[in-house]
Design brief:
With 276 residues, the chain is of the alpha/beta class. Helix 5 packs parallel to helix 6, helix 6 runs parallel beside helix 8 and helix 10 crosses helix 11. The longest helix is centred in the first third of the chain and has 14 residues. The radius of gyration is 17 Å and the shape is globular.
Length: 276
Amino acid sequence: MNIPKIDCHTHIVNQTIYGQYLSTPAADNYALVMEFLPYMTTEQLPDHSWELCDGNEKLFLCPSVDIHADIPAQLDAIGAKMRSRPGCRVVGLKIFLSYQTGRADDERMMPIYDFAMEHGLSVTFHTGYPSYHLPYENDMEGSKVKYVANVARKYPEVNFIVAHMGDPYYDESIQAMHGLPNMFTDFCGAFEPGTEVAADEEGTIEKFAHAIHQYPDSYRQVIYGTDFCPPILLFEVSKYDYTIGKIFTEDQFQDIYWNNPLRAFPKVAAYIQKKG
């Protein structure tokens, strides 16, 4: 089946990584770029995501918010950049839970969701285990999906994406988000070399499937993402297509690759519709 695809989670944060992405089978995808937090960037991993996405019709940007810094000031800066760079299509925000200690339903986080509601943005959270190749605080409890579900109930107009399905709490995560139409998840980043998940690919896929198949309609809350970023050993693309083929029926593929992403990120849908 020749289905268009929206890769809802990448770290294509500079031209080098984008060139690597274009050499993969995902080259024709639309892709969402999750900006790194400033302290995560290095000389070997510079983040030029605003410049890269500006004017690129295939890329959409989700700026990051440092939950340890002044949140309102950061949101003001993001808003100013959005006004000064109209060619950079901002469709969401990225919060690095577990890398940073905090819960989605902490009161100090509410300005983020107010800003998202005002600008029609979706909010993506890292949940579960962090990458071993970035600095992290490893707040596994704070990143649990049940806390995001609390916020999703409070902000029904905002869509919330819990990346990585709360790894390794897959069943619990699907249970927490089921029945909330403004919550979505993915299993991007699953095949990072050196992890237990990557060491047992078939077993991991079985765990994903078990969690998702707890409810017959859970597939409507799953979106496609690869977490592509070779500098931190996230370079797999075809394995996600393989995994989708193992978990979902063929008549659900278009939902996972296209329809669900468009529902999860309304601004992506608006941009693509405007383009025609």
